[in-house]
Write a structure and sequence with these properties.
single chain, two-stranded antiparallel ribbon, mainly alpha, 2 domains, 12 helices, about 70% helix
Amino acid sequence: MRRIAVALFLGCWAVVGCRSTTVSKSSPEPVARGATPTEEFDHLRLAAERLDRSDEPGAVPHLKAHLLQQPDAIMVRAYLGELLLKTGNAAEAKGHFEQFTRDAAGATGPAHKHLVHVHTRLMELAGTAEDTFGEQLHRGIGLVLLVKQWDDGGDSSDAGMSERTLVQAVQALKCADAEKAGDGRVGFYLAEAYYALGQPSSARMALLATGRCDPATLNDTDRRRLGERLRMEGMAGATP
């Protein structure tokens, strides 16, 4: 089972377009060419070898080194977050999960589908830290994204389930707003939930509130989507 997990890990790395690996005959360790002007250890494969030996703490430094070489390896960052969480470093895991949500917001394929899972992780971490705002924020965002995944996959067999899930998202996001007002993510995903529920008036009110928020609270992709929504509603002047 562990070898299967390692193979899947390497497969995730290949999906996100990392450079191919070559083996230097003169070096005792595999090296990855092209990451920098000089040859560097193939840290991803070394991490996989550590995982194959059940050495999860030993894999962590190699995954960090790989991300220094290739910071756009989105799924590797998600895997690193999971390992850090499993090895007891929740604070550092949270940082990587948060970076993943920013990087994956505009991605497609496995990285985009993995967003719901990562928001769930962030919700759990916030709950453990008694951070009510973070817990409700990530619960609400995760539920909105979950319904979007159902819709994108053509799964419209249970409209009632989608509606109930969106209502739960609205409730969570309102709780987050009550804890800390002014975060653009709350208003933006509230608007998305209201649009999906067929409540455009409520969505427009949420958009207006979002337009008055600090734009730094939104990632680049959601900030662009917010601008598009505001222009569609004739409220372009409210764009952050």
